[in-house]
């Protein structure tokens, strides 16, 4: 084991689920039942499992959009119930939704700037320089900054959604099915971008995926089952 690996393995979790249960209706069936798990920086996690197992529900709990019925989601050791969830969502976590949630009539740069402004962060460089670097990072030509979203392909929009999620430098990146509907080489490229974000920038990357190739590229695979017991496979 290298020293670098040893260092990575002793990292404190950035995010943890502590006996989390969730039901969409009061007194109804638990979609997630007593789930406890920890996520470390510098690692890429894949959450897999059949349709309806609760993967998107788990992401919405982690992103602070939904509150657990029981238990707690903890960021850096503090329950989301005790911290400012707006700050958490706009600064600490970058979410890439399956439907991208980009504003189609705005340009690429305008979409990214909206998230930068919402974070309330101060940036030490002009925003246009940061956006140019982000576009390079997701392998899009810099001239795309001025393109309207509605003129972009699905794979290109996926890259913009990643750039936007990175724009305010969050510790955690969440993505729901980030490679659905992409051709194999675009999928491989996007997966590599996520791996670099984890391994080279020490972010915690959590992807929901149905793709065995994406799961294989992750450091840890968390399998959700309809029996409601997650199994950590790796
Ligand atoms: N808003 C909602 N109200 C009530 N039930 C819901 C709601 N959203 C999801 N569910 C139910 O919760 C369960 C888990 O849904 P979830 O979307 O988390 O599954 P998933 O694992 O992401 O599935 P998929 O792979 O199809 O995206 C399903 O039985 C679903 O019907
Ligand atoms: Mg889902």
Automatic annotation (TrEMBL):
It comes from the Bacteria. GO terms for molecular function: ATP binding; ATP hydrolysis activity; transmembrane transporter activity. Residues 15-234 form the ABC transporter domain. Gene3D superfamilies: P-loop containing nucleotide triphosphate hydrolases. One of its GO terms (cellular component) is plasma membrane. Signal peptide: none annotated. Pfam families: ABC_tran. InterPro entries: AAA+_ATPase, ABC_transporter-like_ATP-bd, ABC_transporter-like_CS, ABC_transpr_LolD-like, MacB-like_ATP-bd, P-loop_NTPase. Keywords: ATP-binding, Nucleotide-binding, Transport. SMART domains: AAA. SUPFAM superfamilies: P-loop containing nucleoside triphosphate hydrolases (SSF52540). Part of the ABC transporter FtsEX involved in cellular division. Has ATPase activity. Homodimer. Forms a membrane-associated complex with FtsX. Belongs to the ABC transporter superfamily. This is ABC transporter. It comes from Bifidobacterium dolichotidis.
């Amino acid at each position: 084991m290298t020293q670098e690996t040893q260092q990575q393995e002793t990292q404190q979790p950035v995010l943890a689920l502590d006996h989390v249960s969730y039901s969409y209706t009061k007194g109804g069936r638990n979609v997630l039942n007593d789930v406890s798990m920890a996520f470390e920086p510098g690692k890429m996690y894949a959450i897999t499992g059949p349709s309806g197992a609760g993967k998107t529900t788990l992401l919405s709990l982690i992103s602070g959009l939904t509150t657990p019925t029981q238990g707690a989601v903890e960021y850096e050791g503090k329950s989301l119930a005790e911290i400012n969830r707006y700050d958490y969502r706009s600064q600490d976590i970058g979410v890439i939704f399956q439907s991208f949630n980009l504003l189609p009539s705005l340009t690429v740069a305008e979409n990214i700037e909206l998230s930068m402004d919402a974070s309330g962060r101060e940036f030490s460089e002009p925003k246009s320089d940061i956006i140019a670097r982000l576009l390079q990072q997701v392998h899009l030509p810099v001239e795309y900054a001025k393109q309207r979203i509605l003129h972009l392909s699905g794979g290109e929009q996926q890259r913009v959604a990643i750039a936007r999620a990175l724009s305010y430098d969050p510790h955690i990146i969440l993505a729901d099915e980030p490679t659905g509907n992409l051709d194999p080489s675009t999928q491989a490229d996007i997966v590599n971008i996520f791996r670099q974000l984890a391994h080279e920038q020490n972010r915690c990357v959590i992807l929901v995926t149905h793709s065995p190739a994406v799961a294989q590229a992750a450091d840890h695979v968390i399998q959700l089952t309809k029996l409601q017991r997650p199994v950590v496979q790796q």
